[in-house]
UniProtKB/TrEMBL annotation:
Lineage: Bacteria, Bacillati, Actinomycetota, Actinomycetes, Cryptosporangiales
Record organism: Cryptosporangium japonicum
Residue span(s) of domain N-acetyltransferase: 9-158
Protein name: GNAT family protein
One of the Pfam families matching this protein, by short name: Acetyltransf_3
PANTHER family hit by this protein: ACETYLTRANSFERASE, RIBOSOMAL-PROTEIN-SERINE ACETYLTRANSFERASE
């Protein structure tokens, strides 16, 4: 489901409730998390969605919002990068993998995306496992590529090319 103004309060509560675990991996989680900042971010993403440059979605499970999965799209190069996070209480049900498969296929069909990427900290095994379950191939590691607080994480880059198999 698309992230809209009405989802902001719940998504803000989820981000705050999960902030300690999100701060380990996410640069955006380092600062104070305010509802006003989230509303502004959602608005920018929705404007990019109108322009065909973003698909900002929320993950719903049993009627409750539990996380987000979104895609940043480069329509000129026909590429996209997926990003996601989930409430700790919703982990372990395959939600990100299921939503990721739907979003991957939607990007290929509706936006004519040819190449998708997922970038995850090397130590973030859960995020890397999602990429692998979605059929993405580990293509390499960027050393010290992601500044998160006082640390810099090595980033595993996963790629998916529409119409190819992992051995191509």
């Amino acid at each position: 489901m698309l992230r809209e103004r009405w989802t902001a309060e719940t998504m803000h509560r989820l981000a705050v409730a999960n902030i300690d675990r999100l701060r380990v991996w996410e640069p955006w989680a380092q600062g104070e998390q305010t509802l006003a900042a989230l509303v502004a971010f959602d608005r920018l993403q929705l404007l990019d969605w109108v322009d065909g440059r973003c698909v900002p979605t929320a993950i719903r499970h049993r009627g409750e919002l539990v996380g987000t999965i979104s895609a940043r799209i480069d329509p000129y190069h026909r590429t996209a990068e997926l990003g996601y996070w989930l409430d700790a209480r919703a982990e372990g049900h395959g939600l990100v993998t299921a939503c990721g498969a739907v979003l991957r296929d939607h990007l290929v069909a509706a936006y004519r995306v040819v190449r998708l990427e997922i970038r995850a900290a090397v130590q973030n095994r859960r995020s890397r496992a999602v990429a692998e379950r979605l059929g993405f191939t580990h293509e390499g590691t960027l050393r010290a590529a992601l500044p998160v607080g006082a640390d810099r994480h090595d980033i595993a880059v996963y790629g998916f090319v529409a119409g190819s198999t992992p051995d191509d």
